[in-house]
Amino acid sequence: MERIHLTKQEKVVLRHAQNSEKPPRDISPTMYEYCLSTLQEKGLVRFKADYGEIVSVKITTKGRTYMEQNPRLKNPVDWKWIITTVIVSITAIATTFALFVACTRLM
Q: Which run of H or E residues covers position 48?
């Protein structure tokens, strides 16, 4: 299963949804509902709200499987960004070195 990028609040809400239905104390009700809606879009939880109040929260099979395979809820590493940054850095260093060598030969 591929890793899904989760914010700190989403991680707290997902862990909390696995253990109980009550909202965590350190997250505001608005943020709690927002995190639940984003987790529902990602397919990790299902919740029902009634007039802005959360009635029930259930973790889905995908959510349980995700928690089993990624218990520390680590976010995926963006290897494409890391590789392009390294290539650009090497290119910048090589260009600077070539410019330095060319300038010293002209003198």
A: strand 45-50
Structure tokens at 79: 């290897």
Query: What are 78-92's pLDDT values in tens digits?
Result: 899 999 999 999 999
| Residue of 46, 33, 57, 44 whose CA lies nearest to 4 | 44
- Using DSSP, state whether 68 is helix, strand or coil: helix
For residues 51, 53, 55, 61, the Cα torsion angle rounded to the nearest 10 degrees is 110
Q: How far apart are CA 11 and CA 15, in angstroms?
A: 6
Which of helix, strand or coil describes residue 74?
coil
Under 8 Å CB-to-CB from 57, ≥6 apart: which residues? Answer: 17, 21, 36, 45, 46, 47
Residue bearing the bigger pLDDT, 52 or 45: 45
Are 9 and 23 a contacting pair, CB within 8 Å?
A: no
